[in-house]
Design brief:
The complex is a heterodimer of chains A (about 325) and B (about 500). With about 325 residues, chain A is an all-alpha fold. Chain A is built from 13 helices and four strands. In chain A, the strands form two sheets. Chain A has a two-stranded antiparallel sheet with strand order 1-4. Chain A has a two-stranded antiparallel ribbon with strand order 2-3. In chain A, helix 2 crosses helix 11 and helix 3 packs parallel to helix 5. By secondary structure, chain B is α/β, with parallel strands linked by helices. Helices cover about 35% and strands about 25% of the residues of chain B. In chain B, strands 6-9-10-3-11-12 form a six-stranded mixed sheet, sandwiched between helices. Chain B has a six-stranded mixed sheet with strand order 18-21-22-15-23-24, sandwiched between helices. Chain B has a four-stranded antiparallel sheet with strand order 2-1-4-5, with no helix packed on it. The chains are: A mainly alpha (about 325), B alpha/beta (about 500). The interface between A and B is medium-sized, with 22 and 28 residues.
C-alpha cells in the first residue's frame, strides 16, 4: 500500500516536472536543478523531523520558530570566534534536544495536547529570537569566514549541493531507525494505539518523548544549514511557515495525522514535489503571490485522491 | 395494557438471543426485569426502543399491533430510556440538557434560545422529582445521582409514559438509592409505567409490582406479590444444565506463584484485596460488571499503581505500576477489550506477535525480520490460527482468531502468571473450546492462571477454584464442590456465604 502510494507520488513529480520542462526548458538547466536540490535538502531535513512527531500521533508547530531562534543564536555564537564551529554546532543540537524534550515531556507526562504545546513553542521561540537580536537582522561580521563549515553546509560535490547529501544521509539513517529498529516499531505502535502499546509493555511515554527529541535535533541541524545558507537572519520572518511546509510534505508523503502511519521515502518525495511546485510557480510566470494557493490546491488534490483510493480499498 | 410483546424472537447470526417472549406492561405499573448477563434483557430493550426489529412475533403498543417498532414510533409513544451510561452533556446546563433540540426560541429568524423560558419549563420537572439543584446549574457540578434525575426529568419533559431504568442504582449510595426508589413510586402514582432492570434484587423486591425473569433468551416465569423475593428470583435466574466442558488439571496445584497482598485499587480505595494463585491452577474471578475485577487485573499487570499493598510472583515483589516490570516477572494480561487494548488492529499478525517480544528479536537495536517471521509462524501453528497469511492485518480476522493472536503475543515469553480478562467475549463456540484448551495447557505446564469472567458457563466450566468479587472485595471463595450458578450469583450480588448456609438450612427444615 505504502509502496503504491509512493509510486503514485513519484509519477506525479515526474509528470509535473515534465510539464514544466516542456513549457520552460530552463527547469532542466543545471543551475536551476542544483538550486532546487539545495532547497530539497534544506526543507527535507526538518520534514523528516516533522514526520517523527506526526507518526507519534502529534504535531510540531514550532519548527519555524526554532529555526529562527537557533539560527540567530548560532550566528551570534560563531561570530564571537571564541568557540570552534564544531562546538557551536553541537551546542545547537543540544538546544534542539532540550526543546524537543520539553515538548515531549509536556505531551507524554502531563498529557497536554501536542497542538497546544507546540503552538505555544511557536510563539515563545519567535518572541525570544526577536528579543535576543532586538528585532535586528543577525549576520556574520564583514570578512568572517569559516571554510570547513561553509563547505559542509553550502558547498557542492560534482554540482550536487552538500545540503542535499546531508539530507539523503540523514534520511537513510532515520529511515533505518523508523523502519528497521525496535524503536521505530514502538513509535508506530504508540502512534496508532497508545493503549494497546502500553498493554504490550511498550514504555509509551519514553517513546513519545524520544520522538520529540529526534525532531528537535533534526530541526536544529536544519537551523544551522538555513543560517549558513541565508547568512543573515531577520528574526521576525526567518523560517516563517516552515512548519507548515514540513507538515504538508509529511501529509503528501503518506503520514496520517491520526498517527502510526508514514514512511521516510514518502516524506522525501513530498518535499521534492513541494519544491518542484515552488519552482513551477517561478518558471511559469505565475504571480508569486499565488504561491501558497498553488501549494494548497495540490495538497488538497493529493489528499482527496488518497481518500478516494482508501475508500475503494475498504469497500468489500 | 400499554405495551404487549407476543412470542417475540430474535437471533444474531443464527444464535438465538430471544425465544418466544411474551411480556406486557400496564399503565402505572413497575415491572422488574431480572436475569444474568446475556439472558436477553438488552436485546429486549433494544426492540422496545426501536433500535432493532424482532425476527418474529408482535409488539402491541396502545392497541396498535406491529411486527416491530421504529425509534420514532417508540419515542412518539412516550418510551424513554435511562441508561447506565447517561446520555448527557456535561458541558451544558441542566435545562439545556433536559430541553436539548427542543429549546424554546425567540427573535424570529435569529432563532435565539429563550433562556428564561428554558428555566420556566425545566424547573417544575425538577421540583416534581424533588431535585435540590436549579435548572441553570452546569451539569458538570452534579453528582451521578443528580445527573440521573436530570435524565429522568428529560424523559418526563417528553411526556414519557414508560420509563426504562437500566441498572440505575449500580453507582449510587444507599441513601441515593432509597430516594430513587421513592421517585419510582411517585412516577407510578402519576400513571407512568416503569421497567426496572437491575442485579440488585432487594430493590426489585422493594418497588416492583411484578417481576419477569429471563434466562437464556426465554421468559422463565413471572412473579407477583409475596413471591418477589431475592432467593426465589435467583433460583429462577440460574439452574441451567451446564455443558460438561471442565477438564481436570494434569496434576494437583504446586506452590503459590501469584500473591496479591492487601492491594487497594483506585476504583475501590477502601477495599484491600488478598488472593493467591498456585502454579498449575486456573482460578476464576467472578462477579458483576463493575465489581472491580478488571481494575485488579490491570493493577497486577502494572497498568495502574496500587494505592497500597504488594504483588509477589514466586515470593519476589513485583515493582508496582510498570507493565514492563510485571512482564519481566512473568506476568501477562489478555485484556478485556482486545481491539482497543489487546491488539493494534491495523498491524499485521506478525507485527502484533512481535510487539511485546521485540528485545529478543533485535540485534543492535534493529529488528531481525527473519526472527519475527519465524516467531509468527511458530505461534500461528501452535494456536491453529486461521489466516490467509501472517502479513494479514489483524482487523480482518474473526473474533476468535484475533483473541488467539492476543494470547500468542505472550506465549513466546513462557509466562508464569497469565491473567485472562473475559477471554472469550465475542468469540465463536469452536474457538472458545480451543482457547480453554490453551488455558489448561498453560496451567499444566506450570503457569498460574487467573481468569476474570462474567460468563457463568465459562467460570464453572473452566475454573479449578472461584473467587467472587462484590463491590471491590472478595465476597467469597468456592471450590469445585460448591460451585454452582446460584452460589456464584448469590455472592456476586452481595448476599454473603452465611445467607447461603441459612437458606440451605431452611430448605432442609
Amino acid at each position: 500500500m505504502t509502496n503504491r502510494k509512493n509510486l503514485g507520488l513519484l509519477l506525479l513529480i515526474l509528470a509535473v516536472g515534465a510539464t514544466v520542462a516542456l513549457i520552460n526548458p530552463r527547469f532542466l538547466a543545471p543551475v536551476n536543478l542544483s538550486n532546487t536540490a539545495n532547497l530539497v535538502g534544506l526543507f527535507g531535513i526538518f520534514a523528516v523531523a516533522q514526520a517523527f512527531v506526526i507518526i507519534s500521533g502529534g504535531i510540531e508547530l514550532s519548527a519555524g520558530s526554532v529555526i529562527a531562534l537557533l539560527g540567530v543564536l548560532f550566528v551570534d555564537l560563531i561570530a564571537t570566534e571564541t568557540l570552534s564551529p564544531l562546538v557551536c554546532f553541537l551546542a545547537m543540537l543540544a538546544m534542539g534536544a532540550v526543546i524537543g524534550f520539553i515538548h515531549g515531556w509536556l505531551v507524554a507526562r502531563l498529557g497536554l495536547q501536542p497542538f497546544v504545546v507546540t503552538l505555544c513553542g511557536l510563539l515563545i521561540y519567535r518572541g525570544l529570537a526577536r528579543y535576543y537580536t532586538e528585532d535586528a537582522t543577525a549576520g556574520f561580521p564583514f570578512g568572517a569566514s569559516f571554510p570547513t563549515l561553509e563547505w559542509i553546509t553550502t558547498g557542492r560535490i560534482l554540482g550536487v549541493p552538500n545540503s542535499l547529501t546531508a539530507f539523503v544521509v540523514l534520511a537513510l539513517i532515520m529511515g533505518v531507525v523508523l523502519h528497521r529498529s525496535a524503536y521505530g516499531r514502538y513509535l508506530f505502535a504508540t502512534g496508532r494505539n497508545e493503549e494497546a502499546a502500553r498493554y504490550s509493555g511498550v514504555p509509551t511515554a519514553r517513546i513519545l518523548i524520544a520522538a520529540y527529541v529526534i525532531s528537535g535535533v533534526l530541526t536544529a541541524i536544519a537551523a544551522v544549514y538555513f543560517a549558513m545558507y541565508t547568512r543573515s537572519i531577520s528574526p521576525s520572518s526567518h523560517g516563517n511557515f516552515y512548519e507548515l511546509y514540513a507538515i504538508a510534505a509529511a501529509v503528501l508523503g503518506g503520514c496520517s495525522l491520526r498517527g502510526g502511519e508514514g514512511s521516510i521515502v514518502g516524506v522525501a518525495l513530498g518535499v521534492v514535489l513541494l519544491q518542484v511546485l515552488q519552482n513551477l510557480v517561478n518558471l511559469l510566470g505565475i504571480p508569486s503571490s499565488l504561491n501558497f494557493a498553488v501549494m494548497g490546491s495540490v495538497i488538497l488534490a493529493g489528499v482527496l485522491a488518497d481518500n478516494h483510493f482508501l475508500r475503494r480499498r475498504d469497500r468489500p | 395494557m400499554f405495551l404487549k410483546f407476543e412470542s417475540v424472537s430474535k437471533a444474531y447470526h443464527g444464535i438465538p438471543a430471544l425465544q418466544g417472549i411474551d411480556l406486557d406492561v400496564a399503565r402505572a405499573e413497575v415491572l422488574g426485569l431480572v436475569g444474568e448477563n446475556g439472558a436477553g434483557k438488552s436485546t429486549l430493550m433494544k426492540i422496545l426502543g426501536g433500535v432493532i426489529q424482532p425476527d418474529s412475533g408482535h409488539v402491541t403498543l396502545e392497541g396498535v399491533s406491529s411486527n416491530g417498532l421504529t425509534i420514532r414510533q417508540s419515542q412518539a409513544a412516550g418510551i424513554a430510556f435511562v441508561h447506565q451510561e447517561l446520555n448527557l452533556f456535561d458541558n451544558l446546563t441542566v435545562a439545556a440538557n433536559i430541553l436539548l433540540h427542543r429549546e424554546p426560541l425567540r427573535g424570529g429568524f435569529l432563532r435565539l434560545v429563550d433562556e428564561p423560558a428554558m428555566a420556566r419549563l425545566a424547573a417544575p420537572l425538577l421540583a416534581r422529582l424533588g431535585a435540590e439543584f436549579p435548572a441553570d446549574r452546569s451539569l458538570s457540578s452534579l453528582s451521578l445521582a443528580e445527573r440521573q434525575l436530570v435524565e429522568i426529568a428529560k424523559a418526563l419533559s417528553m411526556q414519557a409514559r414508560l420509563i426504562i431504568l437500566d441498572e440505575p442504582t449500580s453507582s449510587l449510595t444507599a441513601t441515593e438509592t432509597e430516594r430513587l426508589l421513592g421517585i419510582v413510586r411517585a412516577l407510578r402514582q402519576d400513571g407512568v409505567a416503569v421497567i426496572l432492570i437491575t442485579h440488585r434484587l432487594a430493590e426489585v423486591q422493594a418497588v416492583a409490582d411484578r417481576v419477569a425473569v429471563l434466562r437464556d433468551g426465554r421468559k422463565i416465569t413471572e412473579l407477583t406479590g409475596p413471591q418477589i423475593r431475592p432467593d426465589v428470583m435467583t433460583r429462577h435466574m440460574v439452574g441451567r444444565d451446564l455443558a460438561q466442558i471442565y477438564r481436570r488439571p494434569a496434576r494437583p496445584p504446586a506452590d503459590t506463584l501469584l500473591e496479591v497482598d492487601q492491594v487497594r485499587t483506585f476504583r475501590y480505595p477502601t477495599q484491600p484485596i488478598t488472593l493467591t494463585v498456585r502454579a498449575g491452577e486456573i482460578v476464576g474471578l467472578a462477579g458483576l460488571i463493575g465489581s472491580g475485577r478488571s481494575e485488579l487485573a490491570g493493577t497486577i499487570f502494572g497498568l495502574d499503581r496500587p494505592l497500597s499493598g504488594q504483588i509477589r510472583v514466586a515470593g519476589d515483589p513485583v515493582p508496582p505500576g510498570d507493565p514492563r516490570a510485571a512482564m519481566t516477572a512473568g506476568v501477562c494480561l489478555v485484556p478485556e477489550d482486545r481491539k482497543a487494548c489487546g491488539l493494534i488492529v491495523d498491524f499485521s499478525i506478525t507485527d502484533n506477535f512481535a510487539l511485546p517480544n521485540l528485545p529478543a528479536l533485535c540485534r543492535l537495536g534493529l529488528v531481525q525480520r527473519a526472527k519475527t517471521t519465524t516467531l509468527a509462524q511458530e505461534q500461528g501453528s501452535a494456536l491453529d490460527l486461521r489466516a490467509a497469511g501472517m502479513g494479514q492485518p489483524v482487523r480482518s480476522l474473526s473474533g476468535g482468531n484475533q483473541q488467539k493472536v492476543v494470547i500468542g503475543k505472550w506465549l513466546a515469553r513462557a509466562p508464569r502468571v497469565l491473567i485472562f480478562d473475559e477471554p472469550t467475549r465475542g468469540v465463536d463456540v469452536g474457538a472458545k473450546g480451543e482457547i480453554y484448551g490453551h488455558m489448561r495447557r498453560l496451567a499444566d505446564a506450570g503457569a498460574a492462571v487467573l481468569m476474570v469472567s462474567s460468563d457463568m458457563e465459562e467460570v464453572i466450566g473452566v475454573s479449578d477454584r472461584v473467587l467472587v468479587m462484590h463491590e471491590g472485595r472478595i465476597a467469597g471463595e468456592l471450590t469445585r464442590d460448591d460451585l454452582s450458578e446460584q452460589s456464584i450469583l448469590s455472592l456476586a450480588v452481595g448476599r454473603g456465604q452465611d445467607d447461603l448456609h441459612k437458606e440451605k438450612k431452611r430448605h432442609i427444615a
